[in-house]
């Protein structure tokens, strides 16, 4: 079937729609000093609203697609490297992985940031299968075709204390001159009110958590801390879930351990693509790797701040059965 070329007017429509829409959305200053807009119940930076709209309107999921979802600073970069390596391991030797040269963001594009027109979404039909994409979109904002097709979704989350500190540090590093510095205390307050990129974190987590319970073959829910603690187990679990299980021979050869090492923080921070490349939105790739530790937040947060998040987790997540290892246990983390 011949594809009709879209008119310039149609292509620009989303621009107009998103600009009009943005003008009427509630706003807040986010914890990075940038303006956040409340879109479909979540606080989003302006740049991602147009991206989310395009994704919702123009992305056509394929049954072999893999979507890696997360709220920022939860292990997205790591998961991208792992999933890409697991799925493509038969196409090249691990030493020759395009991951080294293109970086995890280069080989796994972000659906909200890396495509800015309807045309670009249509071009994605030509990509080799399985296509792998990253997204920060909340579960409810995913396009219907993603939910209704056999597309697999892997969600990674992280204990909110470490996620907060990772985000605050990152925001400080990429802050633009016209954006105001937000102190740790004020940023923390905003975080606890849910006013942070794609927050509230509890709603973001719960959307995917519930989907993973209702449709475990479609949505795999992972935690950063668990992946740190037993990486090999989780790589195996990821491979099984994605339909690329390791053979007995591969296991015997220690391939899973090799993949774990290739994608470890220590290896990835030394990739050429990390040292000199760029990540989404032209941000230096090195900004996406900071410490990669569990429990680093305890070096910055007071016991009362930790207590506030613990209470919040209890209040917002307890009924769901979703829990996190916190305070003293976090201190003994990987
Ligand atoms: N390979 C690997 N292993 C372990 N940890 C890793 C890895 N790559 C990135 N990181 C750490 O993940 C944090 C960044 O989170 P994201 O990748 O989700 O950021 S983003 O959403 O893509 O902006 C950020 O955490 P902090 O170090 O605590 O800031 C990164 O250092």
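Q: What amino acid sequence fits the structure above?
A:
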């Amino acid at each position: 079937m011949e594809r009709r070329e879209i008119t310039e007017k149609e292509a620009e429509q989303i621009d107009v729609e998103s600009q009009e829409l943005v003008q009427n959305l509630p706003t807040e200053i986010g914890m990075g000093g940038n303006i956040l807009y409340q879109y479909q119940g979540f606080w989003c930076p302006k740049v991602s609203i147009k991206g989310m709209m395009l994704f919702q309107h123009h992305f056509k999921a394929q049954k072999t697609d893999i979507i890696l979802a997360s709220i920022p600073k939860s292990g997205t970069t790591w998961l991208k490297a792992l999933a890409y390596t697991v799925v493509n391991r038969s196409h090249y030797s691990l030493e020759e992985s395009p991951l080294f040269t293109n970086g995890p963001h280069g080989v796994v594009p972000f659906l909200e940031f890396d495509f800015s027109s309807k045309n670009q979404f249509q071009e994605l039909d030509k990509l080799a299968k399985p296509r792998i994409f990253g997204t920060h979109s909340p579960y409810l904002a995913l396009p219907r075709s993603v939910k209704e097709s056999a597309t697999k979704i892997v969600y990674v989350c992280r204990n909110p204390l470490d996620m907060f500190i990772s985000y605050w540090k990152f925001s400080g590093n990429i802050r633009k001159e016209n954006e105001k510095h937000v102190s740790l205390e004020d940023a923390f307050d905003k975080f606890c009110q849910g006013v942070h990129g794609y927050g509230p974190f509890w709603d973001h987590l719960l959307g995917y958590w519930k989907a993973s319970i209702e449709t475990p073959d479609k949505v795999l829910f992972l935690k950063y801390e668990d992946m740190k603690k037993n990486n090999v187990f989780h790589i195996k679990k990821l491979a099984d879930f994605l339909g690329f299980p390791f053979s007995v021979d591969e296991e015997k050869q220690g391939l899973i351990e090799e993949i774990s090492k290739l994608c470890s923080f220590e290896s990835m921070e030394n990739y050429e693509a990390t040292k000199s490349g760029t990540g989404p939105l032209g941000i230096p790739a090195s900004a996406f790797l900071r410490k990669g530790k569990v429990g680093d937040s305890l070096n910055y947060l007071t016991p009362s701040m930790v207590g506030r998040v613990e209470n919040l987790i209890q209040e917002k997540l307890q009924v769901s059965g979703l829990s996190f290892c916190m305070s003293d246990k976090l201190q003994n983390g990987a």
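Q: And what stands out in the fold?
A: Residues 1-7 have pLDDT under 50 and may be disordered.
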